[in-house]
Amino acid sequence: MGVVMLCGSIIFQKRNILIVIIFIVVISISVFVVIIPLANNHYAKQVEKELRKTPLPEKTKIIDSVSRAGKLVGNGNGMQYFGAILLKSKLSLNNLEDYYSAYQKNEWTYVVEPQKNQIIEVVEHSMISFSEKVGDNGYYIVYSWGDGPDLLEELDFRGH
Prior knowledge:
alpha+beta; four-stranded antiparallel sheet; 3 helices; 42% helix; elongated
């Protein structure tokens, strides 16, 4: 009777160890597949929010905005954080560039370009587009590239 109980106990312990190992594997996969991408999406959303909260020049309104995290431009590995707003403005491109130059931290923030359609063409490796229709004249994109924690950049599969 003692041998049967001992064998049952060993089998029970092995089963518990197996359950713990499976649990650890599932949690690890969840971190890489769900949690890290969500965290990086949050950093991209912050870039978009910063653009949206910037005061608008006169005769200008925000039509739409987007954000994306991933390997978006260039070669090699690396995570990039992109945010953009679509503007409808009666101001010229030069006037908008002058206005947003006061907010630029570097050459990769508050970039202003004419927008001819819904597709955001500055992004090379992903299809990003505005949901709102873009008309003929007076539509502009203002976009910025942001940063996130190095560890999250390295661990997100979308940056490779």
